[in-house]
TrEMBL record:
Domain Glyoxalase-like, first and last residues per copy: 11-118
Signal peptide location: none
Tree of life domain: Bacteria
Matching Gene3D superfamilies: 2,3-Dihydroxybiphenyl 1,2-Dioxygenase, domain 1
UniProt name for this protein: VOC family protein
Stored SUPFAM superfamilies: Glyoxalase/Bleomycin resistance protein/Dihydroxybiphenyl dioxygenase
Amino acid sequence: MPLPKITLGAVNIEAADPEALATFWTAVTGSGRESSGGSVYLPPAQPGGLAMFFQPLTGPRPDRQTMHLDLTVPWGERRIEVARLEKLGATTRWHVLDEHPHVQWTTMADPEGNLFCLAEHPPKP
């Protein structure tokens, strides 16, 4: 049986202020942006990159986030990127540095409180 040819088109996020949150994520990803009717689309910044779509919040924000983005940077660059993202308006929530030998990460929140992780994997021997 052939494998399905499914790819991720975009991550969709409801936001209290789609324009402001898209501005933050544009700076994070290096993407361009396309606005229309109160929503903003960020196409992938490079082939195989992450696309994001921001639309107005349609109801109360859930008390608990059940999904988040795991972003990856090259080994040795996580601290530099964490500092850059904090300057853009993200907040650091916690670090996981020695729990798993194959990965270190920092859990952060974007300006509207959506959690995401910034991970780095050590080089394989």
